[in-house]
Amino acid sequence: MTKAAESKPKLVPRNFTHWAAVGFGSGLAPKAPGTFGSLAAIPLIMIMAQLPLWGYLVVTVLACLVGNYLCGRTADDFGSHDHPAIVWDEFAGMMITFIAVPLSWQTIIAGFVLFRIFDILKPWPIRWLDQHVHGGFGIMVDDLLAGAMAWLVLVFVLPALGLGLL
User: Fold this and answer.
1) How far is the CA of 81 from the CAs of 73, 76, 139, in angstroms?
2) Are residues 111 and 59 in contact, defined by beta-carbon separation less than 8 angstroms?
3) Would you tell me how many other CB atoms lie within 10 Å of the CB of residue 122?
4) How many structural domains are present in the chain?
5) How does the record say this protein sits in the membrane (predicted)?
6) Would you write out the chain's pLDDT as a tens digit for each of its 166 residues?
7) Would you state the torsion angle of the CA atoms of residues 40, 45, 47, 53, taken in this order, to the nearest 10 degrees?
8) Where are the beta strands (DSSP E) in the chain?
9) What was the pLDDT predicted at 55?
């Protein structure tokens, strides 16, 4: 078996856990699955933005809690600690990025870019968590923290620099 064939996930299309964990197919992109997963989260976030803040928070917390199971189970089924196709963690991280953020094309682009920067570069403590925490929570935690850092920059740092989009 070739290395490429070994790296392909053993996706069971009728398995809802797998389907959700791979971002309803967005994580199956051959290049940059995390970016595609983050992009696929935007329509969901736009729908969630119609909810009152408490509703948005409830959905976000549930996505984070359920994500521990979805990501952990799918990683086990795929035989990989954190297979690139698993992007539910990006969905949850993007949800955190946009907590109480009024949506406009500017805030969506800024939040998306900030989240991807933190998720890709993994500044401390994100990289440490990514390397030392395992299982479903280990898959989720680095993206949740990347989302929190992106949110902080979007809501506090950019406005303090006179670049507020809110």
Assistant:
1) 10, 7, 8
2) no
3) 18
4) 1
5) Multi-pass membrane protein
6) 344 444 566 666 678 999 999 999 999 999 999 999 999 999 999 999 999 999 999 999 999 999 999 999 999 998 888 899 999 999 999 999 999 999 999 999 999 999 999 999 999 998 898 888 999 999 999 999 999 999 999 998 877 767 766 6
7) 170
8) none
9) 98
Is residue 13 situated within a structural domain?
A: no
Rounded-to-10 torsion of CA 126, 128, 132, 136: 0
Q: Is 6 contained in some domain?
A: no
Closest CA to 118 of 134, 96, 100: 96
- Residue 40 lies inside a defined structural domain of this protein: yes
| 136's tokens | 């479903």
pLDDT for 149 equals 97
- 145 in any annotated domain: yes
Q: Tokens representing 131?
A: 């390397």
Q: Which helix (H) or strand (E) holds 37?
A: helix 33-48
The residue segments making up the domain with residue 43 are 32-160
pTM given for the model: 0.89
